[in-house]
From TrEMBL:
A molecular function (GO) term: glutaminyl-tRNA synthase (glutamine-hydrolyzing) activity
Protein name per Swiss-Prot or TrEMBL: Aspartyl/glutamyl-tRNA(Asn/Gln) amidotransferase subunit C
UniProt region (Disordered), positions on chain: 69-95
Catalytic activity: L-aspartyl-tRNA(Asn) + L-glutamine + ATP + H2O = L-asparaginyl-tRNA(Asn) + L-glutamate + ADP + phosphate + 2 H(+); L-glutamyl-tRNA(Gln) + L-glutamine + ATP + H2O = L-glutaminyl-tRNA(Gln) + L-glutamate + ADP + phosphate + H(+)
PANTHER family in the record: GLUTAMYL-TRNA(GLN) AMIDOTRANSFERASE SUBUNIT C, MITOCHONDRIAL
Function: Allows the formation of correctly charged Asn-tRNA(Asn) or Gln-tRNA(Gln) through the transamidation of misacylated Asp-tRNA(Asn) or Glu-tRNA(Gln) in organisms which lack either or both of asparaginyl-tRNA or glutaminyl-tRNA synthetases. The reaction takes place in the presence of glutamine and ATP through an activated phospho-Asp-tRNA(Asn) or phospho-Glu-tRNA(Gln).
One Pfam family hit: GatC
GO biological process per UniProt: glutaminyl-tRNAGln biosynthesis via transamidation; regulation of translational fidelity; translation
InterPro entries: Asp/Glu-ADT_sf_sub_c, GatC
EC number: 6.3.5.-
Amino acid sequence: MGIQVQDVEHVAKLARLKLNDEEREMFTGQLNAILQYAEKLNELDTENVEPTTHVLPLSNVMREDQVHESLSQEQVFRNAPDEEDGQFKVPAVLE
């Protein structure tokens, strides 16, 4: 099973790409080379290889949640450029 020029034309049409004859031939060859490489991978003996989701062992590196006291509203607004009615006041972005 290989990629034919018609397959490349179909994919180009779906992607709304306009390809000339040279590009069609080039992409057909490139896609066939990719498929040949994938077929070569099928020759590997993976009988005793455990399935993994990643090549390196990964573990959760996040820390446990710790409850802390929140800042007071007064502390929060200390560095605010402007405040109004307990909310940050910013310049309008809509006209």
